[in-house]
Amino acid sequence: MRIIFTLLTSILLTSCYQPERNCEHFKNGTFEFEALVGTEVLKTTFTRNDSIEIDFFKGKSDTSSIRWINDCEYIVKKINPKSISENHAIHMKILTTEDDSYIFEYNIVGDTNKQRGTAKKIK
């Protein structure tokens, strides 16, 4: 009987847990994102206001438009794509937030293959 009570209590407490999602705090600002590509860690810095995002990567900048779906999801599309692959829009979804960072999930619009990352707000 004690085991059943403990199990039910555990299920009840974990099923009510909602991760923090203060997405409004991350609509504007300057952010860093690091990704492991092969054996190299590459860093991208980007500045976002409500409708424009400017990425800085390896000394070059690129501008994208942003269309917010809701407070935690948006679509990013390069304004001046230089290739067919850059012409694809990307769906971004903020999953959880902390004081100065958030975990997000992203995929090319229409593709089911999703990736995850963490961005840190630096300004």
Please name the defining characteristics of this protein.
123 residues, eight-stranded antiparallel β-barrel, Lipocalin, mainly beta
Q: Which whole number gives the mean pLDDT?
A: 85
Strand order of the largest sheet: 1-2-3-4-5-6-7-8
Compute the number of helices.
1
| % residues in beta strands | over 45%
- Indicate the percent of residues in helices: 10-25%
As for the CATH topology, it is: Lipocalin
Question: What is the number of strand segments?
Answer: 8
**CATH homologous superfamily designation:** Uncharacterised protein PF14869 family, DUF4488
Show unreliable segments. none
CATH architecture descriptor name = Beta Barrel
Q: What's the number of structural domains?
A: 1
Identify the overall geometry: globular
The computed structural class is mainly beta
Biggest sheet layout: 8 strands, antiparallel, barrel
CATH domain class: Mainly Beta
